[in-house]
Specification:
7 domains; 7-stranded mixed barrel; alpha+beta
Length: 985
């Protein structure tokens, strides 16, 4: 067979052998050097040392050889270089398709496992890097070339951004330990893309890359990554403006800090000394986790109570796993409405939750949904309020009231006294100075105290009875650089880059002021009575520092204690010009890093908090792969603040998703950027990307038809099973040939749900029908006949879950079609569990108004106990509409336990059915509202829970009635973006 490249097979082999020998000599030298000077740091295939011309010649030889014969392990170094180069340009979309398109002959002679074998051999003989973690388990082949690409181009921006964010906390010790630096980056990289977070699962690799980038040009960096390779990565980073600025800023700040830590020419290994004339750094205790209350005025005589959530970001560096836990769970606040809130809010500063009940002493205020023993213990022991009969808040000029850190009140100021219900014995003498206030918080009462100057004897006696004083004559306030926070009394916050300075002044004669900070004391004397003294605290560590300020008087042998000062030092947070992180304009996103599919399908909760009357602008852009130019740019109409999650979804649906050009762009887009601006209040932007999983569908649109391709990056020899479910018969799957989708053609696919399934993974995508008019969207699903055995119903539920979680295309009308299918499934499940009579009732009455639904349900329910449950729910509809899902499930369990006759135990482990009632009630509501985890095991086996509901059908009917009653009170969202509103578990 003639060689189309003009080379004979023998010549091609000779050339590849020469390349193999050259690469072998290079990698042996690199391995030995790294073992000697870099403690055996791994070698990467991208460190091949070849020029662009060398790579072109090598690739020409490889392509010539694979076009004629099978690849040989004798040339494995050439193949790992070739594969790593494709890993470097990989954008998280299609590795093998790009590889095969650029390697003619690979589909005939090549095999994917051959690439893995070459990298394993490189790891064994040359100490090549070995990918680990969940990423490596899911992508068992392509994880090798991507890991050996060191830092693919599409990840470079994320690393530069995180390095910039943590630039002020990078120490010399972390640069000397790549693993420690990698863990630090992972702890602060939770807002990046899912692909980059998978890279962060290898802290040693990430730390090695980051240290080399930060120290580029230093002798240390040469031992971590080959200088030519490092220069290549830095050059690519510099091509993108933001990445270049971030890396330069991080590099400069890190080097300045290290130079300061080394102290005027100190070499590595020498003891650190502080510059002359400056106090040594003080060690601090960890930042306090005790929650803080803030009161805000609702009207002239009414106050609201807010809890400032503890900022757990200070724990991220020491406990990296806490970040992973908090970004993958939710929490609720004791005493609040009970709404579940994304855990990532505990990693931000100044987040507030309104309280409906006054907190009880020694009660944990933060409750996590997912248990973590270490974090649970920390929250239960530290994040709670101490027991006290009375709280004192100083009223500020902005209409807020902040808690005092001392018991000394200052004449001429106004305070708010709050007493909880346990303080009934304390009588408030309402009169000239005390005015009773209304508190929008049960369990406490409040009074406004306008402290006169001077304070009369009766008022002084009353204050003393409360444990309060009023004779403060020494004033303390921040001086110099303004702190980031100051409560006006004794609590201030500065950044770790600041040198806090305070001023002291007394209106009477004192010999000196004595300041005690941990084990050190300092006495400073004023020049004259009333003169101001300034004290600077240098190099305070991050955390909380308690400063005791005393007066030393000439006529007294012992100092008189006057003030306590709390100095909080925190690491600076990243700030980009015009980007709002906190303050009057705040955007809350749940989940914190959603996928493009979750954003499109309305599964992302986005709330915009800001002053009423202000408006926010919204710009949404779609991007294709790693292109820097958007394929679509859409400016939405401005929206008034504040914006709830439901209002956001409807605004985006009306002005964005319904547009035809937007739908077409969505199908081919790989990422989307959302920018929300509020004028001088700031800007918030975030980026969402396609889900990155080993098994995924790729949809392409041609006019009104669709092409479908399955990308399988699992590395398994067993192909997935493919099934098609039609809209008319959505519970019946038809098996298809997997080859039609792994080797796609230009033949359009018929509409329906396509499911690719393996033993471990399942991925579904919905292809909409061809629509010429709105009538084409009318789908009447008909489910096959099913038995009433638990396993039969479980099978239906699992198919229902496939339809519910399937990815949709850009055609938003597909959501309406899916809503019809899901309604048919739910009706069938409850017909089987609750009976034929109930099935007929749902078909006739489920979309009626609340009163009609209530009367019709009474006629349908023959069991008096179920009627009592219905009446109880009907009377509590207002309360239930404001409750969260878990509280609704608790209410249902209480009513079922009170009014239903529960049978004997049915669970396999013999447990009492009464003890399982709360879990069954929760699952019944999940099923009735088509929300939460439906097909997962929920503590008990799914078949056992279904068996429970079959034994207690009244519980299933009650759950469905609660959902229908609540749904009848509010209009549904457009086109059933969600089947039922307000059901988030």
């Amino acid at each position: 067979m003639p060689d189309r490249w003009g080379l004979g097979a023998e010549q091609m082999t000779t050339d590849l052998t020469a390349w193999q020998e050259r690469l072998e000599h290079h990698f042996v030298a690199l391995r030995d050097t790294r073992a000697e000077v870099a403690f055996g740091q791994p070698v990467f295939a991208l460190e091949h040392g070849l020029t662009e011309q060398d790579l072109n010649e090598l690739f020409e030889c490889l392509r010539s050889q694979i076009g004629e014969s099978y690849p040989s392990r004798e040339h494995f170094l050439a193949w790992i270089v070739y594969a790593a180069e494709f890993g470097y340009i990989y954008a998280g979309d299609e590795y093998w398709q790009t590889f095969e398109d650029n390697t003619p002959g690979w589909t005939r002679f090549g095999e994917r496992n051959f690439i893995r074998e070459c990298f394993v051999l490189f790891h064994r003989e040359y100490n090549g890097a070995r990918p680990t973690g969940v990423w490596a388990n899911h992508f068992s082949i392509i994880c090798w070339p991507i890991a050996h690409a060191i830092l693919p181009r599409d990840m470079q921006m994320y690393l530069a951004e995180v390095l910039y964010n943590i630039r002020r906390i990078i120490s010399e010790e972390s640069l000397e330990s790549p693993r420690r630096l990698g863990e630090l980056i992972a702890a602060h990289g939770w807002r990046t893309s899912s692909r980059f977070q998978q890279l962060l699962q290898e802290p040693l690799l990430v730390g090695q890359i980051a240290a080399a980038l930060l120290m580029e040009g230093d002798s240390e960096s040469k031992a971590l990554i080959l200088p030519d390779t490092l220069a290549r990565i830095s050059g690519d980073l510099a091509r993108e403006r933001n990445s270049r600025a971030w890396l330069q800023g991080a590099r400069q700040t890190a080097r300045d800090r290290i130079a300061f830590q080394r102290g005027h020419g100190r070499t590595k290994g020498e003891p650190k000394t502080a510059p002359e004339g400056r106090r040594p750094a003080q060690s601090s205790r960890p930042a306090r986790l005790e929650p803080r209350l803030v009161l805000r005025r609702a009207s002239e005589r009414e106050w609201q109570v807010f809890l400032e959530l503890p900022d757990l970001s200070s724990l991220a560096g020491r406990f990296p796993k806490f970040v992973d836990i908090l970004t993958n769970t939710r929490f609720y606040v004791t005493g609040s409405s009970g709404r579940r809130t994304p855990g990532e809010r505990l990693l931000r500063a100044r987040q507030y939750v309104q309280l409906r009940d006054w907190p009880k002493g020694d009660e944990a205020i933060i409750q996590l949904e997912k248990s973590c023993p270490e974090l649970d213990h920390l929250l239960q022991s530290e994040c709670l309020f101490s027991s006290r009969p009375i709280w004192v808040f100083k009223i500020a000029s902005d209409g807020s009231a902040n808690p005092l850190t001392s018991t000394s009140l200052r004449p001429g100021y106004r305070y708010l006294l709050v007493l909880d219900d346990r303080s009934d014995e304390i009588d408030l003498p309402i009169g000239e100075y005390l005015t009773l206030m209304d508190l929008q918080c049960a369990g406490a009462r409040a009074a406004d105290l306008a402290l006169p100057d001077p304070v009369d004897e009766d008022l002084a006696t009353f204050l003393t009875s409360l444990g309060l004083g009023h004779a403060t004559t020494t004033h303390v306030w921040p001086a110099g650089l303004t702190p980031s926070r100051w409560d006006g009394e004794g609590r201030a916050e500065w950044l770790a880059t600041d040198s806090p300075c305070i001023a002291l002044r007394s209106d009477h004669t004192v010999k000196a002021f004595r300041l005690a900070l941990q084990n050190e004391t300092l006495e400073v004397a004023p020049a004259a009575p009333g003169a101001t003294v300034f004290v600077e605290f240098s190099e305070l560590d991050a955390g909380t520092h308690d400063v005791t300020i005393s007066e030393v008087r000439s006529n007294s042998a012992s100092p008189e204690m006057t003030r306590n000062l709390e100095i909080h030092i925190r690491e600076p947070r990243s700030h980009l010009p015009g980007v709002a992180v906190e303050g009057a304009f705040l955007v809350a996103l749940d989940p914190p890093q959603p996928t493009l599919e979750e954003f499109w399908q309305g599964e992302t909760d986005l709330e915009i908090l800001g002053p009423r009357g202000r408006r926010a602008s919204i710009l949404i852009q779609f991007f294709r792969k790693s292109n820097s130019q958007p394929i679509l740019r859409k400016q939405l109409p401005d929206i008034g603040l504040p914006v709830s999650a439901d209002r956001w979804r409807k605004h985006v649906f009306e002005y964005f998703q319904q547009k035809k050009d937007v739908q077409n762009a969505y199908d081919i887009a790989s990422s989307c950027n959302v920018r929300i601006g509020a004028g001088n209040l700031g800007v918030f932007s975030f980026r969402v990307e396609r889900e990155f999983v080993p098994l995924r569908w790729v949809v392409r649109r041609t006019s009104n038809q669709y092409l479908l391709e399955l990308l399988d990056d699992r590395g398994s020899v067993l192909p997935p099973k493919i099934a098609l479910y039609d809209f008319a018969t959505p519970d019946v799957g038809h098996n298809l040939d997997v080859g039609n989708f792994t080797h796609p053609t230009e033949t359009p696919v018929p509409p329906g749900m396509y499911v690719a399934q393996t033993e471990e993974l399942s991925r579904a995508v919905l292809i909409p029908p061809v629509v010429h008019s709105f009538g084409d969207l009318r789908v009447e699903p008909h489910l096959a006949s099913h038995g009433r055995r638990p396993q039969d119903i479980v099978r239906i539920i699992r198919t229902l879950e496939l339809w519910r979680t399937a990815r949709t295309t850009g055609d938003v009308f597909m959501l309406k079609v899916r809503g019809d299918v899901l309604s048919a499934f739910i009706h069938e499940v409850f017909r089987l569990i609750a009976g034929e009579r109930w099935g007929r009732f749902e078909l006739e009455k489920r979309r009626t108004d609340t009163d009609t639904l209530h009367r019709a349900a009474h006629a349908c329910l023959k069991n008096p106990g179920e009627g009592h449950i219905l009446d109880a729910m009907f009377s509590q509809l207002n309360k239930l509409s404001l409750s969260n899902c878990h509280d609704r499930a608790g209410t249902l369990a209480v009513l079922a336990g009170r009014f239903l006759q529960l049978p004997c135990p049915v669970f396999k482990d013999g447990s009492d059915i009464d003890s399982s009632l709360p879990e069954a009630s929760r699952y019944a509501l999940c099923l009735a509202s088509c929300s939460g985890p439906l097909a997962e095991e929920t503590g008990a086996d799914l078949e056992e829970i279904v068996s429970y509901l079959l034994c207690v059908p009244g519980l299933a009917r009650a759950a469905r009635l609660m959902v229908l009653l609540l749904a009848s009170r509010q209009p549904g969202p457009p086109l059933d973006l969600q089947l039922y509103e307000d059901w988030e578990w």
